[in-house]
Design goal:
Helix content of chain A: over 70%
Number of helices of chain A: 9
Largest interface: A-B, 52 and 61 residues
CATH architecture of the largest domain in chain B: Orthogonal Bundle
Number of domains of chain B: 2
Strand content of chain A: under 5%
Distance between the termini of chain A: 77 Å
Strand order of the largest sheet of chain A: 1-2
Structural class of chain B: alpha+beta
Order of helices and strands of chain B: EEHEEEEEHHHHHHH
Shape of chain B: elongated
CATH class of the largest domain in chain B: Mainly Alpha
Largest sheet of chain B: 5 strands, mixed
Radius of gyration of chain B: 21 Å
Helix content of chain B: 25-40%
CATH topology of the largest domain in chain B: Fumarate Reductase Iron-sulfur Protein, Chain B, domain 2
Bound molecules: protoporphyrin IX containing FE, iron/sulfur cluster, FE2/S2 (inorganic) cluster
Number of strands of chain B: 7
Strand order of the largest sheet of chain B: 2-1-5-3-4
Oligomer: heterodimer
Number of domains of chain A: 1
Shape of chain A: elongated
Structural class of chain A: mainly alpha
């Protein structure tokens, strides 16, 4: 028999997908809570700023940020490694006609690397715009805090920003519409009975996150004149 | 033939011709007149080859063996469909009645880096053999054939094992996947043996080795698109891949535990 090949778990294609799944799950959970929390923009500047202050002034923010950054780096790192392997496995060989396999799959599942790359650019620019953006101050309930509400108002007043956000949020929803379902597969918790439900939950999740986020810049853009 | 709805149809075949792995290939067009709709697709190719041989030309090389849909030797793309347009059917079990008179069919070999073309429609699938010989077997003594119901296997498990065992190793999954991933094939083999008592002893090493060999052969990873299942002539389910992922995770965790146990 030929010599057996060994490979550490995390360097196998299966192990890398497990990392994609876990880190994708962490980020999918984060974007949902981020979307839900930011809905306070529809309530009042005070509520929005107080919520932001509460999150950033607690101790939990440091481990949370650490986990998110680490997950992000692992997700992108594994994505690069997997996509490179996948492309070299296909070896640039194409068929003269689209395959029945290709026709049977969802558009989102084929294009994860494309929207993923845009999301990468988006997250970097998003953090630069807000987390490291202009620092306004305000006082709410006698506490001095960052006036993020004002910054948000200023940013989304610009049509260029609005358009970029809408595009990226739609793509994030798209990424999640396949990604959330794929988590179950990568983590090995899926069978034939669960599969149709998982697929629907996945699309619904992507839709809720995208629509939930999209409402916010639209609200700012179209109501600002009245304030 | 009495009672047969046999008709004769004319078909244009655009066939991928490639002399060897090293040479570039191209499509060649052949007109087939009066093909019986009762003929299987491979029989139609046989007829084409007879004509080519008579004319002193090189016949089209394609793989086949049982022609009963059970051995997994046949397989190529017809108009982009692995094994042709009919679901759950190997190309040897596909009949010309699937097509209509005057149709043009484009025929290509499986394409993947790990499946180099040998000649025309025949590709080298020895990568699959090496994956099987890395662990896809039972080498412990399991005794003689058991009496019925001697080995307790629950009905759902027996059914699931049987469904996974239906994989004939044809490679349509690899050919149809955008990542040229062999995950459906490997997962079917791993699930099949992991579900049965005879497979338990080597269960953990098996999945470790087969996945390592699969990666070594240069197949891609799974993006959960489902292209493989859609193309599979045996309807192997995507759930096998979830099971493969589970099996490899547990085998890794158990190995850690065993290694720590040894140290004591
Ligand atoms: C908010 C940020 C993000 C979230 C919530 C997210 C979520 C997910 C999820 C849940 C999956 C499925 C994982 C699996 O199949 O087990 C996934 C897959 C993937 N993600 Fe992301 N992702 C994000 C950002 C990114 C970025 C920045 C990139 C790339 C540069 C990226 C590239 C990919 C790729 C290529 C896959 C598919 C991997 C494969 O199928 O082999 N993602 N993502
Ligand atoms: S999983 Fe299906 S397509 Fe893949 S080798 Fe087995 S029978 Fe062929
Ligand atoms: S020749 Fe055996 S399955 Fe087609």
């Amino acid at each position: 028999m030929s010599a057996t090949i060994e490979r550490p778990y995390l360097l196998t294609s299966v192990g890398k997908k497990m990392v994609m799944g876990i880190t994708g799950l962490i980020w999918a959970g984060f974007v949902f809570s981020h979307m839900a929390g930011n809905m306070l923009i529809l309530v009042s500047p005070e509520a929005y700023n107080t919520y932001g202050h509460m999150i950033t002034s607690g101790v939990i923010v440091y481990p949370a940020e650490f986990i998110l950054v680490l997950s992000f780096l692992l997700h992108v790192g594994c994505a690069v490694s997997l996509v490179r392997g996948n492309m070299s496995a296909r070896g640039g060989q194409r068929y003269a006609m689209p395959t029945n396999g290709e026709k049977a799959v969802t558009p989102a599942s084929k294009t994860m690397a494309i929207h993923g790359s845009l999301i990468l650019a988006f997250i970097i620019s998003h953090i630069a715009t807000f987390k490291y953006g202009i620092y306004y101050e305000t006082t709410a309930h006698g506490v001095v805090m960052r006036d993020l509400h004002r910054l948000v108002m200023e940013v989304f007043r610009q049509p260029g920003f609005l358009f970029w956000y809408l595009l990226c949020l739609i793509l994030l929803g798209f990424h999640l519409s396949h990604g959330v379902g794929s988590i179950f597969q990568s983590l090995g918790i899926r069978n034939d009975r669960m599969a149709p439900v998982i697929n629907k939950v996945s699309v619904l999740y992507g839709l809720i996150v995208a629509l939930g986020f999209i409402v916010q810049p639209l609200y700012v853009f179209f109501t600002l004149g009245n304030r | 033939m009495a009672g047969s709805n046999s008709k004769k149809i004319n078909i244009t075949l655009k066939v991928w011709r490639q002399k060897s792995a090293k040479e570039a290939g191209q499509f060649m067009t052949y007109e087939m007149k009066e093909v019986s709709t009762d003929a299987s697709f491979l029989e139609a190719l046989d007829q084409l080859n007879e004509k080519l041989i008579t004319k002193g030309e090189d016949p089209v090389t394609f793989d086949h063996d049982c022609r009963e849909g059970i051995c997994g030797t046949c397989g190529f793309m017809i108009n982009g469909n692995a094994h042709g347009p009919q679901k759950s059917t190997t190309v040897c079990q596909l009949h010309m009645r699937t097509f209509s008179d005057g149709e043009t069919l484009t025929i290509e070999p499986w394409r993947a880096q790990a499946f180099p073309v040998i000649k025309d429609l025949m590709v080298d699938r020895s990568a699959f053999d090496r994956i099987i010989s890395s662990g896809g077997f039972v080498s412990v003594d399991t005794g003689n054939a058991q009496d019925a119901n001697c080995l307790p296997v629950s009905k759902p498990e027996a059914d699931a094992a049987f469904e996974s065992a239906a994989c004939i190793g044809c490679g349509a999954c690899v050919a149809s996947c955008k990542n040229a991933s062999a995950m459906l094939f490997v997962s079917a083999k791993v699930s099949h043996l992991a579900l049965l008592p005879q497979g338990q002893v080597e269960r953990n090493e098996r999945v470790d080795r087969m996945v390592a060999q699969m990666d070594e052969e240069g197949f891609g990873a799974c993006s959960t698109t489902g292209a493989c299942t859609a193309a599979c002539p045996k309807d192997i389910s995507l759930s096998n891949i979830a099971k493969l992922n589970r099996e490899l995770l547990f085998s890794t965790l158990l190995r850690r535990e065993a290694a720590e146990g040894d140290g004591v």
